[in-house]
Amino acid sequence: MAVVRDLRVLLRFQGFRRLLAVRLLSQGADGVFQVALAAYVVFSPERQTSAAAIASAMAVLLLPYSLVGPFAGAFLDRWRRRQIFLYGNLLRALMACATALLIFGRVPDGFLFAAALCVTAVNRFVLAGLSAALPRVVDAERLVVANSLSPTAGTLAATAGGGLAFLVRLFVADSDAAVVLVGAALYLCAALASLRIAKDLLGPDRAAAPSRLATALRECARDLVAGVRHLAAPERREAARALTAMALMRFCYGAMLVMVLMLCRYALTSSTEEGLALLGTALGVSGAGFFAAAVLTPWAAGRLGPGRWILVCSAVAAVLVPALGLPFATGPLLAGAFVLGLSTQGAKIATDTIVQSTVEDAFRGRIFSVYDVLFNVAFVGAAGVAALMLPPDGRSVPLVVTIAVIYGTVAASIARFDRQ
Average of pLDDT values for 397-415? Predict the structure, then answer.
């Protein structure tokens, strides 16, 4: 297979191998941590979860750091990215242990969300740093392939981490706290793996002199404005359009995820254990879609161009989401999970490539941080809209139709820009 051949070529780069190891361990830990929280918040037998409760949890976890997220990018362009991976994963391991203790102690949800909020905050630094560092470990000729395989491998690792969480619950301990501790161990492994990378290999090239906190924040604000101006330049309009399209597609993905959670919890299963198992199956099928995107995107983006590949992904989703979503049945639901995984990850790979190819290295960290903020805001907004539209059992024809219309609008907009 071409994807196997491409991976073998990339693995010849020592820096890529080591950066990939950090990504796999880190995002695998994310998958474990997220499934453990979902099981505790959504699928606990003593809880009667609603779409509004899910939306509130997403808002608590993501929105505060959407406000400070752009500043993270400015710091990313000042700090050694290797050190971010080291200390970021160490901090996440510590906070995951604290979260496990809170779950074990059955404390109020506010304390649990605060601990999870810290893990999510550091995650913004780590993921943005991984994307910003990728061009430092592969050459320009192989950047598209690296963008296809590396983030997709990370997503598959997160999916595998979710599967590991299910296995721990089934065969080791029926305890969400125990699952969170497994995630903490993986975060620690990711920190140790980052020590194999040279401190200065991942950049950035420009090192900022130490300064007081207030001065650093003012400098970060100026750097952020410069980054936005850099993105708004005429020669980088393609990157701005790709980011906008990706944010809208992320909105659609978030709304569908909330609907799937409610369907698995109430409409399609008769117990919380069955609901959690169905959710795990859906995530696994979606992971297969991510893998398919990794295989198809280098070929499709090479023939069509990354922008037109985003058009194809959004158009396919616009057609198949209502066809597979409106029956509200298990089989079509799983097929839809595959389609969403393929279309969303295919568009993301293309967007990453466009941004990395058009944004200069000195600005790349803050642009990817803005990218993450757009993801968070779109995801939380989608959860809020889903909470307003979803009935208690999760079946909502208007929501599925709305998502299809948004996908179609993205495809039509890209087609219009392409003609211009």
Answer: 94
Could you give the domains of the chain?
A: 8-419 (1.20.1250.20)
CB atoms under 10 Å from CB of 248, counted, come to: 20
- Measure Cα distances from 129 to 125, 145, 369 in Å: 6, 18, 8
* Eight-state DSSP code of residue 270: S
∠ CA 37-41-44 to the nearest 5 degrees? 110
Contact predicate 208/80, CB 8 Å: no
Any residues with CB less than 8 A from the CB of 222 and at least 6 apart, and which? none
Q: For 199-245, how does the pLDDT look when each residue is reduced to its tens digit (9 = 90+)?
A: 888 878 755 444 555 676 677 777 777 777 878 777 778 888 899 99
User: Whole-angstrom Cα distance, residue 211 to residue 78?
Assistant: 11
- State in Å, rounded, how far the first CA of the chain is from the last one: 37
d(CA 255, CA 263): 12
Paired tokens of 121: 């905050």
